[in-house]
Design goal:
One of its GO terms (biological process) is L-threonine catabolic process. This protein is α/β, with parallel strands linked by helices. It is built from eleven helices and twelve strands.
């Protein structure tokens, strides 16, 4: 018999979202109810979770064993290859981004798990869709490996929910900006790198061109949204693919202007690489009214508050 307490497993727990989500889940549920997992060797400073499992998430047998051993009820399955890296390793991206999700859905179907969170992305939209204020129910036409895997994952979530009543919830994250753990392999990562380089070098060369707008979200708001979605009553949820999240929208040039308000000598130049084509296929802004209506999505950070908080924290972190 499973215990009634929520027991949580986080995959990708040492990544950009994973680190901060783990900390928050530990605050809410207690370290003894949170199991972090990742590929790194265990070290006592690795995570705030009460337990750590060094685990390749594509190793189904091992993952099942971990779920059983800890009597896990809820999985935050964050392990994923992002858009830039996926273009370089398409077959591995498909394997990592899809197969473990299906395994977790199977475990939930069998009654081994009660709830799953899986991140989707604005990468699902793709070309031929209006750039601005893209709605929840538009035709999806991803042209990247990452976008294709996320679109397929969303449809699998919907399938398991509709056919078997699996409680799997998802968000189409925009670019995520944070200072605690660096991002890795994404197209929106310029908006994180720029802060590190501003503090360390006073200048930045952007791999995205100056007037390319993309939706972005500060990590504090991303964590809040994820937990709010997971806490929402099941019957309020009308979207079983993944919820749109708009956050804020800006271009590299606009972000540089914000940084200059705090650091007047900061300079930026532009040298777009292969990720420019990916960015060009994504929306510039997103309509997230369905998430606001269904589970009360709200944000605390705009571009100015986010920039102030990033610079304040990175100056302290990088001085150490
Ligand atoms: C990426 O750039 O690949 C991610 C995303 C928008 O999903 N940050």
């Amino acid at each position: 018999m499973k215990s009634q307490t929520e027991k949580i497993l986080i995959t990708g727990a040492l990544g950009q979202i994973g680190t901060e989500l783990t900390n928050r889940l530990v605050e809410i549920h207690g370290a003894e109810n949170v199991v972090a997992s990742g590929l790194d060797r265990w070290d006592k400073n690795l995570t705030t979770a009460g337990f750590y499992e060094r685990m390749d998430v594509t190793n189904t047998q091992l993952v099942r064993q971990v779920i059983k051993d800890y009597e896990i009820t809820t999985v935050y399955h964050l392990a994923s290859l992002l858009s830039g890296t996926s273009e370089k390793q398409p077959l591995f991206a498909w394997k990592l981004n899809i197969e473990p999700l299906l395994q977790f859905c199977e475990m939930a179907k069998e009654g081994l798990l009660q709830k799953i969170f899986w991140p989707s992305s604005i990468a699902v939209f793709g070309t031929g869709i209006p750039k601005e204020n893209v709605g929840q129910e538009v035709v999806l036409n991803p042209t990247t490996v990452y976008g294709i895997s996320k679109m397929a994952g969303e449809k699998w979530c919907e399938y398991y929910h509709t056919k078997f009543g699996v409680d799997v919830r998802s968000i189409r994250y925009p670019g995520l900006i944070s200072w605690k753990t660096p991002a890795g392999g994404g197209t929106t990562d310029y908006a994180v790198e720029i802060f590190y380089e501003a503090v360390e070098e006073g200048k930045y060369t952007s791999f995205i061109s100056e007037n390319t707008g993309m939706p972005m979200l500060y990590m504090n708001d991303a964590i809040k949204a994820t937990l709010d979605l997971m806490a929402a009553p099941k019957e309020n949820l009308t979207v079983h693919t993944a919820y749109n999240l708009g956050g804020m929208s800006f271009t590299p040039k606009q972000l540089a202007e914000e940084i200059k308000k705090e650091m007047p000598d900061f300079t930026i130049d532009y040298k777009p690489d292969f990720r420019q084509e990916i960015a060009d296929s994504w929306p510039a802004s997103i309509d997230d009214s369905v998430a606001k209506k269904d589970w009360g999505l709200s944000y605390d950070y705009g571009i100015t508050e986010m920039t102030e908080d990033m610079l304040k924290n990175l100056k302290i972190k990088l001085a150490k």
